[in-house]
Design a protein that fits this description.
The chain contains 10 helices and 5 strands; from the N terminus they run αααααααβββααββα. It is of the alpha+beta class. The mean pLDDT is 86.
């Protein structure tokens, strides 16, 4: 299945949730905030469909997949890994997704969106412990240091993010300038997005 390339606000309106796909403060993000509760499509303003139990599970899975910007096969692979791991499957699924390098770069506040973080990694602008890593799905580990190349710090969107002195990363990460460190592995409480992992587990267990 190809990656979705259509209007990102349409995805957010379909899930009735800001998925973090647009830069906060942009005109597009402002437009989303005004229309977030209106489903996309010609008849969107008139009604929002009622879903069956399966439909609710599907929507939660789609929402979670879209927040992290993954294809179905990628998301299913992470679920398979989480199910094999010792511990709560939902918590482990979130941990694997949070540990993705593109997500860590986003959580560190180096980029305004996960999509921008993925591009930054893919273009070779990110280093782990001094070594260039261009694989967005790389899973970071506790103690690893994530740094940006000097060229990346001059990219306008990145430079603007680095200049924001009010930004505070989640507690599993630490940041100083264009460098960050994985203080510990992420936990369920570190994820503030409205995600019901139990519904996702039920979807794949049906």
């Amino acid at each position: 299945m190809a990656r979705y390339t259509g209007p990102k606000n349409r995805l957010a309106r379909k899930e009735n949730l800001d998925l973090g796909l647009k830069t906060i403060g942009s005109k597009s993000h402002a437009s989303l905030q005004r229309r977030l509760n209106i489903p996309p499509g010609q008849h969107g303003p008139k009604l929002r469909r009622k879903f069956s139990g399966y439909g609710i599970q599907l929507r939660e899975k789609q929402k979670m997949k879209r927040i992290y910007g993954l294809l179905e096969r990628q998301f299913r692979r992470y679920f398979g890994l989480a199910r094999k791991w010792r511990g709560n499957t939902g918590d482990m699924l979130l941990q694997f997704l949070e540990r993705r390098l593109d997500n860590a770069v986003y959580r560190l506040g180096f980029t305004p969106t996960r999509t921008a973080a993925r591009q930054l990694v893919s273009h070779g602008h990110v280093m782990i412990n001094g070594t260039r890593v261009n694989i967005p799905s790389y899973l970071v580990s506790a103690g690893e240091v994530i740094t940006l190349k000097s060229k990346a710090a001059n990219i306008p969107a990145v430079k603007k993010m680095l200049e924001d002195k009010t930004f505070v990363p989640p507690t599993w990460l630490a940041r100083q300038g264009g460098a960050g460190q994985v203080a510990r592995l992420p936990e369920r409480d570190d994820v503030k997005e409205d995600i019901n992992t139990q519904l996702v587990i039920e979807y794949y267990s049906r």
